[in-house]
Amino acid sequence: MHALLVDHSAPAGLRLGESADPVPAPHQALVRVSATSLNFGEVRHAIAHAPDGAVLGWDAAGVVERAAADGTGPAAGTPVVTVAMDGAWAELRAVDTATLGIVPEGADPGAISTVPVAGAGALGALRRIGPLLGKRVLVTGATGGVGRYAVQLARLGGAHVLASTGDPGRHGAGLRALGAHEVIARPAEAGAPVDGVVDLVGGPHLVEAFGTLAPHGTLVAVGHATEEPVVFPFGTLVGGDGRHDRSIVTFYLLEDSGLAQDLTWLASQVAAGDLDPQIVWRGGWERAGEAAAALLERRLHGKAVLDVAV
């Protein structure tokens, strides 16, 4: 099969080539991939640490080529959206049926391919905050793929949404169009305390965001874009002055229960136009190096989609 292979001598570490077809385990479906969306973590970390010839990729949308042998999951011919730690950047992908969602007929595979990491990550993080109706929710790093889904989903859940971005002047209008009530440059500008934080930045930004939490509030640590350590000043976690019982929760998408159901629901919302996938770059997978470079250089604020030639 054709696939994007890790090649550390190539631009952005990727080249089109040939790889062996995957052999599905009994609980896996074989999926013919139509589109994949790129994530910063893949191009920043996964490629660098993978051997030459590896087939990476987390997100993919396509059609079931062969159903799982154990009878789980959808039948052959069903449009699906998939997530796993590798295998998305290829014509064929073997994927656990527990991490596979069903897609409405006729939906754009490119738009649907943005759902797994960005959409399901945002949904899972917001669930850890609890019921959102009437709550103040802060999303840091809101211009990225996960952040843009988090803003939309928090608004749909009835929250008062604050979106944090390093350039409110440039990104404010777009974030407000997605559902943000307020757009701020730093968490400290939140004003009144917030009930929940979806933090996609990490480092000192996470520390600052934690300081905005109201009593019983929860910060969900999802992203670590700064790649800086998290260091709390002495006394931050003592809980005095009424700032008690605040939580920091870590999150890992592939251990989230009900992932197949979440992917199915998110795909339906994107297909219906109720969620905007925020695609800002799209092209054939022969242009993967171009897209990866744009992500690494922080020139893309939203999702990059590769259409897979078949």
From TrEMBL:
InterPro entries: ADH-like_N (IPR013154), ER (IPR020843), GroES-like_sf (IPR011032), NAD(P)-bd_dom_sf (IPR036291), Zn-ADH-like_protein (IPR051397). This is Alcohol dehydrogenase. It comes from Nonomuraea mesophila. Coiled coil: none annotated. Residues 9-306 form the Enoyl reductase (ER) domain. GO terms for molecular function: oxidoreductase activity. SMART domains: PKS_ER. It holds the Pfam family ADH_N. It comes from the Bacteria.
